[in-house]
Write a structure and sequence with these properties.
368 residues, single chain, six-stranded parallel beta sheet, globular, alpha/beta
């Protein structure tokens, strides 16, 4: 039996790691345990419930207004006891969160091998996104096994002289849709459940990254106002992050237009099914750049760079920056030009076939 400890702590990690946990628990040669750091709380629990997974350990680190330093210290301190108790053969972490990096570091201190799921994403700008870019680079240095979603991620690792145990697996988020997306889905969100939005062209918006707070977020909102006023037949749906600074800006600029619907953050089930019903996506999220192409939805990235260039190369995603004029212009193109829209919508999804978890589990079964 290979003892695998899966560690994650935020909602985005959970969405991508839960399909893998389900697959690992099917395997007779693997003993899988789950540890949550609690970097997120309510949003994380929604995902766990959606996949019907119960954690074995929970660090409960979340505190109001916690700093990156506090997150790091708490995880490092609390994981030491758990790692010594379990003595796993391998620790799996995901992506680029503070949980991922610190959990990898804690495992390294115990000389436990680390497997990095969603390895090899890079912007090569350590402050954008912050702190995620350096988190994933340092996790990559610690890891023994690298599960890269795409060939270009593997190339990124090779450029850093990381060549051993690098596997191209696809992205586990595509696997998640088997659980989360259903025909004739009934939304849990009370507003979406009763809102008369079906039949309209939905523009789904998310924007909350640290580097966009302030003037960039104001620019994003101002562009959305122009679009909403010019196209009264479309409906903008914006699940607004709980960060009070984000909410203050968004509600101040967007709070009084009939065809803009501002919501609290949605459950993973509601969010994935809303993507499926949307016409196009405006986002600064990394995950949505991977999720939306699986449904044939064009994505405009509200950032100046992306660590997911394969989606840009495939034509499913376009980076438009944070200038209000640029966002307005590129959104208007997709609303007006059906040929350009269809070219993006029909581009091949570069993130795999929905079997990434199986490939990773196959590899872990053969670790001696």
């Amino acid at each position: 039996m290979t003892k695998v400890l899966v560690i994650f702590g935020t909602r985005p990690e959970a969405v991508k790691m839960c399909p893998l946990v389900l697959e690992l628990k099917k395997r007779s040669k693997i003993e899988c345990s789950v540890c949550l750091t609690g970097q997120h709380k309510e949003m994380l629990r929604q995902v766990m419930d959606a996949f019907d997974i119960q954690e074995d350990y929970n660090l409960y680190i979340m505190k109001e207004k916690q700093s990156l330093t506090a997150i790091t210290i708490q995880i490092l301190d609390k994981l030491e006891f758990i790692l010594r108790k379990i003595k796993p053969d391998i620790v799996l972490v995901h992506g680029d969160t503070s949980t991922s990096y610190v959990a990898a570091l804690a495992a390294f201190y115990q000389q436990i091998p680390v497997g990095h799921v969603e390895a090899g994403l890079r912007t090569n700008n350590k402050y954008s996104p912050f702190p995620e870019e350096l988190n994933r680079q340092m996790t990559g240095r610690i890891a023994e096994y690298h599960f890269a979603p795409t060939p270009s991620n593997k190339i990124n690792l090779k450029n850093e002289n990381i060549t051993n145990n690098v596997f191209v697996t696809g992205n586990t988020v595509i696997d998640a849709f088997k659980t989360t997306v259903t025909n004739n889905y009934i939304f849990n969100n009370a507003i979406l459940k009763k809102y008369q939005w079906r039949g309209k062209r939905i523009i789904l918006v998310t924007a909350h990254r640290r580097e966009n707070i302030g003037k960039p977020l104001e620019n994003i909102c101002n562009a959305i106002v122009r679009i909403a006023k010019e196209y009264p037949d479309i409906l903008v749906i914006y699940p607004v992050h709980l960060n009070p600074i984000v909410r203050e800006t968004v509600y101040k600029v967007l709070g009084n237009l009939q065809n803009i619907l501002l919501l609290d953050p949605l459950s993973v089930l509601d969010m994935h099914n809303l993507i499926a019903h949307s016409y196009l996506i405006l986002t600064d999220s990394g995950g949505l750049q991977e999720e939306a192409p699986a449904f044939g939805k064009p994505v405009l990235v509200l950032r100046t760079e992306t660590e997911r260039p394969e989606a840009v190369e495939a034509g499913t995603v376009k980076v438009v920056g944070v200038s209000s004029q640029d966002i307005y212009r590129e959104t208007r193109v997709l609303l007006e030009d059906i040929n350009i829209y269809q070219k993006m919508a029909r581009a091949v999804n570069p993130y795999g076939d929905g079997h990434a978890s199986e490939r990773i589990a196959d590899i872990l079964e053969n670790i001696s």
